[in-house]
Design goal:
The complex is a heterodimer of chains A (307) and B (288). Chain A has 307 residues and is an all-alpha fold. Chain A has one domain: MetI-like fold, CATH 1.10.3720.10. Helix content of chain A is 71%, strand content 1%. Chain A starts with a helix and ends in a 6-residue tail after the last helix. The relative contact order of chain A is 0.13. Chain B has 288 residues and is mostly helical. Chain B folds into two domains: 7-68, no CATH class; 71-287, MetI-like (MetI-like fold), CATH 1.10.3720.10. In chain B, α6 packs antiparallel against α12, α9 packs antiparallel against α12 and α12 runs antiparallel to α15 (253-287). Classes of the chains: A mainly alpha (307), B mainly alpha (288).
Amino acid sequence: MSILETLRVYRFHYFMMLPGLLLAGLFVFYPILAAIFYAMHEWSGFTAKKVFNGFDNFLILFQDPIFWNAFGRSIVFLIGTVPLQMTISLALAMILNMQLLKLSTVFRTMIFLPVVTPVAVIGIIWTFLLSPFNGPVNSLLLDIGLVSQPIDFLGSTNSVMPSVIGVYVWKWLGITMIYWLAALQTVPDDVYDAARLDNCKGYRLAFYVILPIIKPFLLAILLISSVAALNVFPLIMSMTNGGPFFSSEVMEIFIYRTAFATDDGSIPQLGYAAAAGVLFGAVLLGLTALKGHSTLRDRKTTPGSDA
Amino acid sequence: MNTGFSPLRLVFGNHSPSMRIALISTALTIVCLIWIYPFLWMVSTSLKSNMEMFANPSLLPQEFAWDNYRRAWVEANMGRYFFNTLIVTAGSVILVTASTAMLGYVLGRYNFPGRTAFFVGFVATVFIPQGFTIIPVFELLSMMGLSANLFGLTLATSGHAMVVFVVLFAGYFSQLPKELEEAARVEGVSFFKIFWYVMLPLARPMVVTVVIMQVLHAWNDFLLPLVVTLANPAIRTLSVGIYAFKGEQSIDWTGMSAAATISIVPVVILFVLLQRYFINGLAGAIKG
């Protein structure tokens, strides 16, 4: 079949895909290719000329401790948030899924509140709440005598990451809970009836009956949460700007700072920032491929799984 | 009989079910109130005067300072940013839902030359973080002359998050039964009408899910609007506008709180109204 023939036969199909493909082409596929192209150039500012320098950017990146620290911090962030977020939200979802609980909707809405709040708002509110000067959290800790001096949660290099991780989990727990609630909806009512007949309740019902049924969703929720945890730019930007002394600078902050030169007096290095993005993206893609591979394998054994 | 101990039993003892529910409800109420404390603080601060805010730690303001809201809406331009965000959100929801539904439908249900290539392309890019493509996206907008208006921001906001929806739609459409569609085709219903009148209504759970997820994404988005509006304060969104409060020498906490309260009200209302559909939609969507 010639190309023209193909286009004619499937003209409706292609026509229907056109808007989506156009949008994706412009804002997803082209930018990825462009970023790889820029990564091989020295380019200081949007108005400056790009100078091809091959793999120099990558070679410098390999020896840049600030880059690797940011890289490591993104991973620490991922490991620090995702398991915590998933287990707490699962427990909450199971409790809130109880049909007898009349106020369930109210509780859900309250827990979901941080999710619908713009991240910038969350960041700024918590900056104040955690402030060592008059901040409510420190006032409380001082009042009940847990600490004798206010803690500078966001201002000390030791406590900044745990604090940001805590706020992040608080902010996004609601969405993970909704995913779990949706998964729990797929458990048929007769399972609960059968369990009641066998007098199986509480944690035994949760662990041995419900959990195995919703297990296929685990991977999908894990993937969504992991991707989200890598896009943490807005929260950290609005809370700490990556400080103090770069101690909360994750990958995206590194890229933003290098590309748009928010430090006074430094030159924007767009090519270098693009290279950092490419390297980080390549590692993520590798991890995704690994995970995707295992998903496919699981899928063959557990029908109905989604990922 | 079940004599094993469960954590719940340790806490609540051998109470009747209704007693237990009451106890769980009380515990949850306390947890939830602590959970939303930052919001209570925010709303309370938005009603205090700047003087009172530091002097009175209680959540209840002594007298209501409504002026904060006027200041936020008029002087800090929140009214304008609110409008901008609304345009970007509504525009991107329409664009994203329509284009990804059609694309996902074709990819999920038909086999045609190029299908596999498109599909692999979409799946492979699902996990690319925003930071990776922000520089080319910004340059592209400048090149197209769209970097200084809301239309460009809407387009980029739509394009950034659509990939995962395409994959979700394709998966959902692929598991719908063939019979209805075939019956319609035998009746001579056209390709587009089958999609619009037969298949799309069947995919309602997925549509609801995508609409809500895109609203959340657009309302929350920060990196893209920040970069796009660096040179154009007039098209700032709420997120960026509120962030700008922080840049100033002394933060106007009460004005900022009022602005923040304004920014969350619409989404909270939307969620309260659509919560049931959202959970059911997600459940329907992931079942597929």
